[in-house]
Design a protein that fits this description.
heterodimer, A: 168 residues, mainly alpha, two-stranded antiparallel ribbon, 8 helices, B: 674 residues, alpha/beta, five-stranded mixed beta sheet, 35% helix
């Protein structure tokens, strides 16, 4: 597994927690319930609705599950959370305070947009958009309706003029 | 000074062979909270509430840590308190149901620990789907939404009762406790002993309350409502009101029940005396003829159902006597209507029992006449306490009253039916009456006590009778296996499903642990001691019952009123699969088992051949072919049931003969009658 600046550390923690949570046998309370709740909080943060209190609760849960679980799975399940919290706390804070994913990986924080300077109005993106979120007149710049956009990235893939993409 | 000690919160505690650290810490006066630890069950270590910090070893669950000399234990460190609080918060987050309307309100460990540990805020939402509540059976209610997965019920049913009705299903956060195939309790091998409910810390398993039915009958001016009170109830009903004396509690219960509106208050111990007469006489007859021995007692309905399911080969060894509850019901419904001047249908018989299986027993078809049951409603001791509280009767203050005659007078032998060894002792007091003076030499201490299996021998006439007294169904199974293998030989075996007998029945108030059972047992023997009479045969009203109605023990009338029959019962009910339906009106019902054992011995081929044979004989219209699951006759598969009659070993190669000899005649017969 290669992690670089394009990898969101909260998403990494969520990914591992998803794995351990589904591997939990369900015998002891802390692992069974604790990993489930940690996963819920991580999902909440990566989906953009987390709060600072959630980060505190997550840290408390992680330490408790590590200290109190019955077996090695439960005792180590919180490690990705604990180490990302220790070394990348600013990434967590960016998710909950600035509503941004610094690595640009979390879908919830992405906004697709079409650069009117670059768009030649070919209409290909509108044709390919699965939700019909893109509209416009031929030979004029097209626009994306963000309420309909599901952030699938098809527009970016099909645009030959580098006009559609994630808003920085 | 001993060199074997640990230090608990700075206090030196000597080790005295405790199995785990938790017991040592409790000895030091620290009540560590637990959900999954019970001294009577195996250690599970899942609730994590008893975690303590041990110097040099870190955080350990004390229930599963053996004590070692020199351990320095901190029970209330920052980490341990945090772990307990978070574990409790996590459990509460998943817990459905409002405390105020829960059957376990004020008796729930989740509730009391949340209060004790100061969990005042739950930060997580409950997103779980609401699971269906199982109210299918007569005795217990199972609400999975309140389950905290401590596994106490699972281990109780498996380890103490030896059945294993409940187990964990699924894994991770989807894990749940359920009977086999997620069926209801009614459809599996549950015997309704309810020991799972006595150990459940929350409201996930509770006794089914029927208090409202009794109130309705009391409020019906047409009905005369009489009540019988079981022996073991008197030792426990007072627990809720701070009264431990069984005789006093009985007098106060009689008074309270009259205030509530019952017309007559009787004692099941009277019927227990009758049971002793019937069962003792039956035993002496069998002993003389040397047949159907050992004779097993039949007072315990959970044991009867257990035997019907697991040991059908021993059903003829069971005493044919009804239990005291049902003997009382039968007598009451037969003779009280004329005494009280009402029709049978307007006499409402309530029994107060320490037992949840008694509810099932009262509902058995054998114990009703034209659809009207001998016992209308069974209340448990817990429900009686609730009813007294609902009525507002101040139990501690109410003056005791005597019971009504004739079914209120009992001997001490009838009273001790409520504890393990009591039935055996009562029978001994009848059988040994010729050799012993029952006024001051009536105690048989070798059958007393709470041990699971007790053995004794007594001289009856010139024969030494070998007896066993067993409680807890796992012990019963162990004993029966020994009888089957010939390792042990007995003449009479007393069986009680709950450890310690009825005093520990699931209808008794909580806590219902072994310490409570020990207290109740002693109280019950005290009740026996203060009776004027100690042997069933000396009870004048029992004698009168025989004179007036029953002639003599085991007479024809006695058999009609006081005896019953048993039947082999399937452990699981399975769905039936319709395979081919005939169009004719008169049809033969053919069910082929498609379960694993029958399948491996060729039941699919048998089924196919039967259908081909029916087709070629032109009978397809006249047969309903169905697939069925397990007739519990697995050693002689494939099994085929034809019009309700089971046939084993219907192998594919025998199918043609089977069709000609069994199925065809039925079709021909149907033709003739048509």
């Amino acid at each position: 597994m290669i992690l670089d600046e394009g990898t969101c550390m909260v998403e990494v923690a969520r990914y591992f927690m998803n794995f351990t949570q589904s591997e939990s046998c369900g015998k002891c309370v802390l692992c069974r319930e604790g990993t489930k709740r940690m996963l819920e909080i991580l999902e909440k943060i990566t989906q953009g609705s987390g709060s600072v209190e959630d980060i505190d609760t997550l840290a408390e849960l992680a330490e408790t599950v590590r200290d109190g679980s019955l077996c090695g799975l439960g005792k180590t399940a919180p490690n990705p959370v604990l180490s990302t919290l220790r070394y990348f706390r600013d990434e967590y804070l960016a998710h909950v305070l600035d509503k941004k994913c610094p690595a640009g990986q979390c879908q919830a924080f992405k906004t697709y947009y079409i650069d009117p300077e670059k768009c030649i109005g070919c209409g290909l993106c509108a044709k390919k958009c699965p939700t019909g979120a893109i509209s416009g007149e031929v030979k004029k710049p097209y626009v994306i309706d963000v309420t309909k956009c599901i952030k699938c990235g098809v527009c970016e893939d099909v645009c030959k003029f580098d006009a559609a993409g994630i808003q920085e | 000074m001993s060199k074997n000690f640990v230090t608990v919160d700075g206090l030196r505690v000597e080790l005295a062979g405790e199995k785990n650290l938790l017991e040592v810490i409790r000895k030091a006066g620290i009540d560590l909270p637990t959900f999954c630890y019970h001294s009577e069950l195996s250690v599970y270590g899942a609730c994590r509430m008893c975690i303590c910090e041990i110097e040099g070893r870190g955080l350990l669950a004390t229930c599963s840590t053996p004590p070692e000399h020199g351990m320095v234990i901190s029970t209330n460190s920052e980490k341990t308190l945090r772990i307990r609080k978070i574990a409790l918060e996590l459990l509460l987050a998943n817990h459905h149901g409002a405390c105020q309307t829960c059957e376990k309100n004020t008796n729930c460990r989740l509730q009391s620990l949340a209060d004790r540990l100061g969990v005042t805020n739950v930060r997580f939402d409950n997103h779980d789907d609401i699971a269906a509540i199982d109210t299918s059976n007569t005795s217990l209610v199972r609400d999975p939404n309140k389950c905290i997965l401590c596994g106490d019920c699972v281990r109780m049913c498996k380890e103490v009762q030896g059945i294993g009705v409940l187990d964990f299903v699924g894994r991770g956060s989807k894990v749940r406790v359920s009977p086999a195939f997620e069926k209801n309790l009614k459809d599996v091998e549950c015997v309704y002993c309810g020991q799972c409910a006595t150990t459940c810390p929350t409201g996930a398993l509770t006794v089914k309350s029927e208090v409202d039915k009794v109130w309705k009958a009391i409020h019906d001016p047409q009905k005369k409502v009489v009540v019988q009170i079981a022996p073991a109830v008197r030792t426990a009903v007072g627990e809720a009101f701070g009264i431990s004396d069984g005789e006093l509690a009985m007098g106060k219960t009689a008074a309270a029940l009259r205030r509530i509106g019952f017309d007559r208050v009787f004692d099941t111990s009277f019927a227990a005396d009758l049971t002793t007469m019937e069962e003792g006489t039956e035993f002496l007859k069998r002993l003389q003829a040397n047949e159907r021995l050992p004779q097993f007692t039949s007072c315990c309905p959970a044991w009867v159902k257990y035997a019907e399911q697991f040991y059908p080969e021993f059903l003829e060894n069971l005493s044919s006597c009804k239990s005291p509850q049902q003997m009382f019901g039968s007598l009451a419904k037969s003779y009280l209507p004329s005494e009280l001047g009402v029709e049978r249908n307007d006499l409402f018989v309530v029994s107060v029992m320490p037992c949840t299986a008694k509810k099932f027993e009262a509902s058995r078809g054998e114990f009703s006449l034209n659809g009207s049951p001998d016992v209308d409603v069974v209340l448990t001791t817990q429900e009686l306490i609730k009813m007294i509280m609902q009525a507002g009767v101040l139990f501690a203050e109410v003056r005791p009253e005597s019971l009504d005659m004739p079914f209120g007078l009992k001997s001490g032998a009838g009273v001790i039916f409520g504890t393990s060894g009591g039935v055996a002792e009562a029978v001994l007091r009848l059988a040994c009456a010729a050799d012993k003076n029952m006024d001051h030499d009536c105690e048989f201490h070798e059958v007393r006590g709470l041990e699971g299996i007790k053995e004794a021998a007594a001289k009856v006439g010139d024969r030494v009778v070998k007896m066993a007294v067993v409680s807890g169904l796992a012990n019963v199974s162990e004993l029966i296996e020994k009888v089957k293998s010939g390792e042990r030989e007995y003449d009479i075996v007393e069986v009680m499903s709950c450890r310690g007998g009825c005093i520990g029945g699931a209808g008794q108030p909580l806590p219902n642990d072994m310490a409570a059972r020990e207290r109740r047992k002693d109280a019950l023997y005290d009740c026996d001691s203060v009776q004027a009479l100690h042997a069933a045969q000396d009870n004048p009203f029992v004698q009168e019952a025989y004179r007036k109605w029953l002639t003599e023990p085991n007479s024809h009338t006695a058999h009609e009123l006081l005896h019953t029959t048993y039947k082999h019962r399937r452990r699981l009910t399975g769905e039936v699969i319709d395979i081919q339906e005939g169009a004719a009106k008169e049809k033969v019902d053919v069910r082929v088992c498609v379960g694993t054992c029958c399948y491996t011995s060729g039941s699919y081929d048998t089924m196919r051949k039967l259908m081909e044979l029916a087709d070629s004989a032109g009978y397809s219209d006249k047969i309903d072919f169905k697939g069925s699951f397990c007739f519990e006759n697995c050693n002689v598969g494939p099994n085929v049931e034809v019009n309700g009659e089971l046939h084993g070993s219907v192998l594919p190669q025998n199918t043609e003969d089977f069709f000609r000899n069994v199925v065809e005649p039925l079709i021909e017969g149907a033709k003739v009658t048509a």
